[in-house]
Every structure is written in C-alpha cells, then in structure tokens.
Protein: Malate dehydrogenase
Amino acid sequence: MKLVMIELAIDFQSEPVRVVVTGAAGQIAYSLLYMVAKGDVFGPNQPVILHLLDIPPMMGVVQGVVMELSDCALPLLRGVVPTADPDVAFKDVDAAFLVGAMPRKEGMERKDLLAANVGIFKVQGQAIERNAKRTIKVLVVGNPANTNALVCSKYAPSIPKENFTAMTRLDQNRATAHIAERLNVSCADVSNVIIWGNHSSTQFPDVRHANATVNGAKVSVSEAIKDDEYLKTQFVEKIQKRGAAVIAARKLSSAMSAAKAASDHMKDWWQGSANWVSMGVISDGSYGVPADVVFSFPVICSDKKWTIVQGLEIDEYARGKLDITAKELIEEREEALAVCQDSNL
Ligand SMILES: NC(=O)c1ccc[n+]([C@@H]2O[C@H](COP(=O)([O-])OP(=O)(O)OC[C@H]3O[C@@H](n4cnc5c(N)ncnc54)[C@H](O)[C@@H]3O)[C@@H](O)[C@H]2O)c1
Structure:
C-alpha cells in the first residue's frame, strides 16, 4: 500500500502535457474540456495545460469557459491558455483536438461543408508545423474529419503522417451501443466492431468480426443476432444515418457523444487500446484501400502508436462497401486540394 502511494506521488509531479482544443467556445469542446482536464484522457495522475483556440468574435465565450474550468477546481489542470492566434495555440503542444469547424446544419450535405472547412485545416497545419512538438498527436473531429486530417498533415510536412488521425470513434460507439441494446448486454460485452472508411454516410459499420458476451459465453455478434440480412442492411443504414437523426431531433449536431468519442480515441492512442478500435489514419494500401487518403481502419494502439489490424477477410459484400467509401474520400481529397490551391491562404 505504501509503495502505491509513493508511485502516485511521483507521477503527480510529472511535467504537464500541453493539449490544444480548437473550437473551444463550441458545444463539443464544452463537454470535452472537462473530460481532458479531469484526467479521462491522459491518465488520472497526468497534469495538463489546456490551450483553447477559437476565432476572435468568440473570445468572450472562451473567457466564460476559462472561468468554469477554474471553478471546477480540478487538481490536474495546471494552466489554461485562451487565444485566437493559432501560433500561440499550437506552441509546444503534445496533443491536439481539432474540433473547431462549421458544424453541419439540418439539410446540409457534407460536401457543402468541405469548401468552408478545408481552409481552417490548412492554416492549422501550418501553425502545427511552425510550433508544435514533432511528436504531437492530432485528432481531427471537425467535419469533413478524414479529409481535414489529410489537409492538415500536408501542411505540416515535418511531422509524421501517422500523427494525424480522424475521428470515427463516435460511429464505432454508436454501432457498439446499438448491438449491445439489441442483445440486452452491456456495451463492455461487445468488442471488435469496425468502422471502415469515411466519417460520412458512406462509412461501413462492420460487425462480421465482432464478438459479444451473452449469458457468460463469448460468441460472434452474427451468431448472437441471428439475422445477417439485418446486419448487412438496416443496421448499416442506421449507423450511417445516426448523425443526421440526432441533428433532426436536437437541431444541433452530436456533442456529448462526440466529446466522449474524442476522449476515447485519444485515450486509446495515448495509453493503449485493449481491443481493436477504429480510427481514420493515413492509408498504406491495406485491404486494397488507395494510399494517401485518411481512411478508418481497425487498429490496435500501443506505445503511443497505432497499427492496422491485418488479415481480416474482405468478401464481395465488404469489398463493395469499402470501394464506395474510398471513392468518396478520393473525390473529397481532390476537391479539398483544389480549394487549398485556389484560396491562396
Ligand atoms: N467526427 C465526428 O464524429 C463528429 C461528430 C460530431 C460533430 N463533428 C463536427 O465537429 C465540429 C464542431 O462541432 P460543434 O458542435 O462543437 O460546433 P459548434 O458550432 O458548437 O462549435 C464550433 C466552434 O468552432 C469555432 N471555430 C470556427 N472556426 C474556427 C477556427 N478557424 N479556429 C478555431 N475555432 C474555430 C467556432 O467559433 C465555434 O466556437 C463540426 O464540424 C461538426 O460537424 C464531428
């Protein structure tokens, strides 16, 4: 018991990690900042200094968030740096949550968002290149997340491409929760659900390799649900359209669940993952996916690195789904790079 206490005391002295959250005045950040500041992401003994970036008109709101963070009296929070200057925001940071972007409104297609948002990620890539630690871990949440992550990495060429990821964890969590509800088990009893491809309605939520513990026995989800047709059609569609369903109901895009997913993603990357998790990562051509797109694969994380899970069977049905979402990502990439060049930012 004594030994444990000494170890905790030493950990507590460790250098704070600097973490930037962009879109700090927004609704996702409002939930996410609390999770980061109380130790959910970087560990219960790891102090943090939060950098909060938003645009100049939102600085008043950001000041309110700074006050609330202070009022939470969180022992791990060692400092807060509110700013509208990307060079200040990214200075010496260890981890970045790139949340700030224009959110999708009801009836708005993701493609409409692309032109509005790629410029933001070009500027932030350049600021990362100038200021951040070379080991920075970047998670892009702002949509279109996969393509924004690609754009950002292109403008930070001295930082490894593997350090830029996009969030599909919300889709994974949605799919996992849906299967758990259907089987009347806890989410913790469902593992290895995969999201392939883009964080969009072309994503492929795949439970062909997923397992569930039902009545104490571990079985495949397919065996447990006993309805492959449902898993291939209605289930896939439900997860693909879940974001739109939340917008229709809330008149705002997912926020609490998006923050939880961002926290899960960075935590697994930083501290290691127990099971497969899905992350948008730079494609190396695995599973016949074209290179140079940020594509969601099943990965395992350890030593602060992700590795794509290899050797999974891709049948004709899955091949079709992977190809559709890959095609969309290639189109997005071409449009995004054209916008970056035209805008001369
Ligand atoms: N990947 C996912 O699973 C997922 C899930 C939900 C939402 N999202 C996306 O996350 C993003 C944020 O959503 P939200 O609900 O928090 O939106 P929000 O509108 O509440 O907040 C966005 C914030 O970003 C700020 N911002 C805009 N441009 C900025 C810039 N250049 N630098 C810094 N900050 C900037 C805005 O001022 C605003 O405060 C949206 O793009 C949304 O579509 C992604």
